[in-house]
Amino acid sequence: NGDTYRRDMSLRCMSPISPISERSLMLATTTSVDATGLLDVLADAFKKDTGIALKWIAVGTGAALKQARDGNADVVIVHAKKLEDEFLRDGYGVNRRVIARNYFMIVGPVDDPAHAAGSSSAAEALGRVKSSGVPFVSRGDKSGTHTRELDLWALASGKPETAYLETGQGMAETLRIAAERRGYTLTDTATFYGLQGLTGLKPVYENAPELENIYSVIAVNPARIPTARYGEAMAFIAFLTSPYGQQLIGEFRGKSGRPLFEPMAATPGVDLVK
Amino acid sequence: MIFRELALAIWVSLKTSGLAALIASAIAVPAALFLAGRDFRGKRLVLLINQTWMAAPTVVIGLLFYSLLSRSGPFGGLGLLYTQAAMTVGQVFLILPLIVGFSYTALRQVDKRARLTALALGATPRQAGWVVLREAKYALLIAVLAGFARAISEVGIAMMLGGNIRNATRNITTSIALETAKGEFRNGIVLGAVLLVITLGINLLVQTGLRGKDKD
Amino acid sequence: MIFRELALAIWVSLKTSGLAALIASAIAVPAALFLAGRDFRGKRLVLLINQTWMAAPTVVIGLLFYSLLSRSGPFGGLGLLYTQAAMTVGQVFLILPLIVGFSYTALRQVDKRARLTALALGATPRQAGWVVLREAKYALLIAVLAGFARAISEVGIAMMLGGNIRNATRNITTSIALETAKGEFRNGIVLGAVLLVITLGINLLVQTGLRGKDKD
Amino acid sequence: MNEFVYKLDDMGYAYRGPVSSFSLELESLRVGPGEILALVGPNGAGKTTLLMLLAFLARPGRGRLEFLGGDPWANEASVVRARRDAVLVTHHPYLFKGTVADNLSFGLRLRNIPEAEWPARLRSALALVELEGWEKKSVLGLSAGQAQRVALARALALRPRVLLLDEPTANIDAGLGLRMEAVLREVSRESGTTVVFSTHNFSQASRLADDILYLSDGRRVEFSHENCFSGTAATDGRRSWIEPRPGVRIFFPGETRGHVTCVINPADIRLFAAGEAAEPSPGRNVFGGRVTRMETTDAATALVRASGSLTFRIALPVAELEAKGISLSRDVLLRFEPESVKIVGPRTPGNPRD
Amino acid sequence: MNEFVYKLDDMGYAYRGPVSSFSLELESLRVGPGEILALVGPNGAGKTTLLMLLAFLARPGRGRLEFLGGDPWANEASVVRARRDAVLVTHHPYLFKGTVADNLSFGLRLRNIPEAEWPARLRSALALVELEGWEKKSVLGLSAGQAQRVALARALALRPRVLLLDEPTANIDAGLGLRMEAVLREVSRESGTTVVFSTHNFSQASRLADDILYLSDGRRVEFSHENCFSGTAATDGRRSWIEPRPGVRIFFPGETRGHVTCVINPADIRLFAAGEAAEPSPGRNVFGGRVTRMETTDAATALVRASGSLTFRIALPVAELEAKGISLSRDVLLRFEPESVKIVGPRTPGNPRD
Ligand SMILES: Nc1ncnc2c1ncn2[C@@H]1O[C@H](COP(=O)(O)OP(=O)(O)OP(=O)(O)O)[C@@H](O)[C@H]1O
Ligand SMILES: Nc1ncnc2c1ncn2[C@@H]1O[C@H](COP(=O)(O)OP(=O)(O)OP(=O)(O)O)[C@@H](O)[C@H]1O
Ligand SMILES: [Mg+2]
Ligand SMILES: [Mg+2]
């Protein structure tokens, strides 16, 4: 019944201490997992499975890790290996597990003015963009995508001097700016295919192993953050990496009707190399 | 977005921002009355600070309260972060200077003789204050409603301090932000329209209710 | 963030928001003068709409203008999207109702006899309007500065219509948003402080400049 | 020059809205150049309203209002021109924030009078209201009378063709009030300025004005609101009367019902030293009293105030005073015909007409 | 009951700020219960300022102000109590938005007077100002006099121990002004209400008041501001004089410089029918004139206004009038000693003292 539900909600959210009767878990996550709608599916199933209510804030990898360090999250889902390593090394995170992957790809105007399509590597594609003078739009926000982009530019011997727009925004916004400005950009497939109303861009370089995008889940270390709900966090990790959880991830299709994430937890040795 | 979630988001918006407007008004209107009533050294400075405060971006207020309310912050023990209470607190802080500024202008509009006449007829200073408020009733209403409008339309604080948690702290504006991030612009605009219609309704209700039949 | 970039962001903020405040004031103040000066049928409706408009979230305004200015929109040909001009336009739209509301309250504060006296002494209606504005000078200043504060502190429009493009449309608030997204909360707060100091300076400058030695 | 400054015919004005049901109706009014016209009447008679109309700050709802031979309301420019010619000083004047000089120069600037002329104009206008040297004073913290004088100076500095003054000396001290009257007489005589002013001071009106317009309840009445009494009308079949004080009756012809106000023309009252005439008798308006004030107007007429159960004002030639042996403090009898009593309408909204 | 309602000793009040250098100084003032005190003086004399002090809306900067035997400024509660006892009606009264009844009941509510009593109180207060039945009227669109009367009724409805009135009849029509005087006399006599009022109407002051406090430039002066003239002082060594009009000199003893104001007590002026006394001669204050007004006060004194090159007001016993053959319109001579001329201070800020 909606009324009792609302009353319950209001009580719970306004009172400083949540009732112990309901177990809950706070997740800080990168935006793409949320914006595609995957988390809605996972949260519902998780609740049904364990009775634990999953709450999440979708803020981007950098901010998510910061929130976790500040003790405001119990578990994180992120996709930037370097930042994750730092997080683990500083002792804030434990039990990192790879849960899924998809791919980055380079997209550009449909007429591909830089003739990047058909390149043999990402570095080559970027090099063509650079030499053509067509603008490249970068997120420029130290996100997982941005970090990867910088790595790729390093392989392509440096980013363009002028035809390089840094948006400092999320993937969706950056894609839109690339479309408006008829530029190229690096995007993850989930956002690209999940984004409604985006026209004028097409993938020019994709499905390459060097563009793999790994999502992982990390529990917050209760030894470091005593308030962290470690038990619930581990339950969530267990759920995500369980065959059922992996199945849900694999079967998830966004609005576009394509599979957006590839389950990875069962891949042998994945947590060692990715 | 399903209907139940929309209804909940509307409810969260109304509750947190309505409360914020009430609390902020309860502080700001007396403060404005005090400022409007007398001239003292440092009054210009107070007004200047108030004016500057109006320029505090929601994100910065969000950050500020985040660092206070975060588990690692001084008030972390309260567990207020990512609750509607935190949103309300942040919004109170956001709209305070707006309501002070608006009310100050509104109260300066009251003829100085109103207070004096009330005192001359035997009012206590507090009663005279009420008289001044009553004479500026409609303009104060606009001030409070402007504060409410500011609170219900802001997104930075709701996002940072509420966390846009589904079924808990997600309100209309954070929903709009989410829809926008998803590229669902149409949904964003529809939600915006819903927000405006609700505000229109509230304005209509409050104005006709409190204004009654008397002329402005 | 290197110094040159910070300076540029400050400059973008000041330019776009300052311009927005000026343009919006040029529209809003005469409108408020018109509204304050006479009582006509439908005036309450106009005020109601204005009041409601104040509740338009920046993101929604951003979306609206985005759909107008984007390549596929009716004004796409102008190529205004992701320029400072677009930011200004959006901000004008954002702060208009605030300045109208504030100025309206400020102008109601002017004794009705001021206009009448000006007319009696031979002023044209336009000159009488100026007299009324002059009598409410300080309160109008507060209105304009409140509009400026609102514009310089908003982030949604700057983000959506400016695009936060480095070295082009990145201003202080979008920088703050970026730092926050990166998790660099400290930088965000420092930038917020910079913004407030700048606004304080502008307020001080404008107020002492325009106010001169006369008492409020 | 035009024959008339103001020419009003069949003019009507009503306040809109449910607040008031007042309307001002003037069948005909002419004001010539250089004329001084006083508006006299009880509170709410419409004096201020008429001044607003004459200053073109309110627009007649009906009828003709001609100013200097033209229609002031013809277009926007003509209204402004007319307003520059006819300057109103309101009853409780508004002073613009700033100094006295700022206020005085406001109208000069509007009229594009060269700035070089301003100091002299300001000086002479302030001298007229005896505020020499007040140019640099802030208008904040002026006393009531000082403010009124600054407003008067602000109008005088403009040297307009018409001066419209709403109770110009109400808050000015008595001695200075007389000086102000002299000033007005002077500008009227020397510059041919037309002056229309309202006042509750009947002797001021008769001293100063060439003509007095008596108003009551928005209508021109034939005589002063002096000798104006209210009460509930009663009748015994032959005569009707009101009782303004218990036991004191004023008789009038015809039958009227409800609460009414009547006035008696001061010139219609006959005055006798006590003992000379008949004692009060039923059905006749005879009252006893004592002379408490006597004064002369410019027109060699004396105004006498006699106070008894009621206070009356009687107008008679100065010569008659001595002939009749009437002097200050004397007991007198006064008599007037019921036919001299004019019913002018209700004073309170309790009345059916309202 | 206390001996005095007000007891002021060595009280001083000054407006702060650079706007004005005015200060009010009263060495001693006593107002007894049921007394009617009039404040008379030129514009800017400090009448309004004194009324604000007596209404406890301004606090004396110096000296003692006792009210009903206590210190009204002792604490917050005592001020409010004192204000409830002494109600001020300001010169240009402010009416709260709403109806006439809203305004009248405001003070009743504050005093916790049972609502059942209100209608009767309202009715009788409105009857006193002749606005019977106006309860439900909105205060918007009242004429100046109507507004003043509503404000008066608002104070009367409270039946305070002290009524403070700033120019109470300035905008009220003449007939009604006299009625208001009667009302004040009545409340003073019947309810023992103390009344302090300011006025520019000297005859009103003498008619109504038991005592008159003459103020000029913030100081008590001994006599009326009537016969009050300003000019630049000059001297020939033996005598000093001012010229209020060109060629017209008023002599006074001693030497003074600058722009000064002087007053002559109306009782110090001697009056003669023309031809009876000496012609004007240098060094003596002799003026010709014509009697333009004569009136009696309650005290069997006659006030005569004589206008010539200057207008003087002369006070003398009624009996003397006839004995001297002085009547309305007669030419007269008047004379006063230089010693009767009191220098009371500057009128304009051009003066060095200011
Ligand atoms: N703005 C208004 N709206 C409605 N009624 C009004 C308005 N102004 C005046 N009135 C009414 O019109 C009538 C005439 O008012 P007006 O001010 O002309 O009187 P007046 O002769 O100047 O009186 P007073 O001697 O009191 O100044 C009054 O009954 C008043 O109530
Ligand atoms: N708020 C104020 N600030 C500074 N000076 C003031 C203030 N109010 C009055 N004054 C000055 O104090 C003096 C006395 O003013 P007050 O109003 O008491 O005079 P008044 O006797 O009532 O005169 P009037 O007959 O014109 O009403 C005046 O010179 C005036 O300029
Ligand atoms: Mg009037
Ligand atoms: Mg005064």
Task: Please provide a written account of the structure.
The complex is a heteropentamer, with one copy of chain A (274 residues), two copies of chain B (216 residues) and two copies of chain D (354 residues). Chain A is an alpha/beta fold. In chain A, 42% of the residues lie in helices and 22% in strands. In chain A, strands 1, 2, 3, 4, 5, 6, 7, 8, 9 and 10 form a ten-stranded mixed β-sheet that branches. Chain A is globular and about 55 Å long. The relative contact order of chain A is 0.19. Chain B has one domain: MetI-like fold, CATH 1.10.3720. In chain B, 76% of the residues lie in helices and 0% in strands. Chain B is globular, with a radius of gyration of 19 Å. The model of chain B has no long low-confidence stretch (mean pLDDT 91). With 354 residues, chain D is of the alpha+beta class. Chain D folds into three domains: 6-220, Rossmann fold (3-Layer(aba) Sandwich); 229-261 and 342-354, no CATH class; 270-335, Beta Barrel (OB fold (Dihydrolipoamide Acetyltransferase, E2P)), CATH 2.40.50. In chain D, helix 3 packs parallel to helix 5 (144-156) and helix 4 packs across helix 5 (144-156). Chain D is built from eight helices and 20 strands. The chains are: A alpha/beta (274), B mainly alpha (216), D alpha+beta (354). Bound molecules: adenosine-5'-triphosphate (2 copies) and magnesium ion (2 copies). One magnesium ion binds at residues 47-48, 91, 166 of chain D.
Count of helical segments of chain B? 10
Strand and helix order of chain A = HEHHEHEHEHEHEHEHEEHHEH
Instruction: Let me know the average pLDDT of chain A.
Output: 87
What does the radius of gyration of chain B come to?
19 Å
Number of domains of chain B: 1
Structural class of chain B: mainly alpha
Global geometry of chain B? globular
Q: How many β-strand runs of chain B?
A: 0
Coarse shape of chain A: globular
Gyration radius of chain A, rounded? 20 Å
Oligomeric description of these chains = heteropentamer
The fold-level CATH name of chain B is MetI-like fold
Q: Describe the biggest sheet of chain B?
A: none
Poorly predicted segments of chain A: 1-20
- The overall strand count of chain A is 10
| Name given to the CATH homologous superfamily of chain B | MetI-like
Q: Bin the strand percentage of chain A.
A: 15-25%
Q: How does the major sheet of chain A shape up? A: 10 strands, mixed
Instruction: Give the SSE string of chain B.
Output: HHHHHHHHHH
Terminus-to-terminus distance of chain A? 46 Å
Mean pLDDT of chain B, rounded to whole units?
A: 91
